[in-house]
Amino acid sequence: QVQLVESGGGSAQAGGSLRLSCVYSGYTGDCLAWFRQAPGKEREGVAAVRRSGGTRYAGSVTGRVDISRDSAESTVYLEMNSLKLEDTAMYYCAESLYMRSCTLSAADYEYWGQGTQVTVSS
Length: 122
Description:
By secondary structure, the protein is mainly beta.
């Protein structure tokens, strides 16, 4: 059974940094990703990482965010820098057991964590 458990969310000031962690267990697929959802908005992909280490980023976070995967620790990280007010959202870790292209489309991921809240203030 696949389980994803996020941590590391919290409050930060604009311009600051946060690092989110997601511990995954069970059968591990090729693609792990971070998504976020702000109140009243659709869930959007932030970043994805392949087992091989290849990454994909949303245009809105490119240059400010780094996704990494530590297979030995069964953990995927999302390092967020230069935080903006619009980064405020619930952040979710997601995994696909079958996909190879590691998209940023929520519909392509089968398993989800419960989420961790990120709040950025001025």
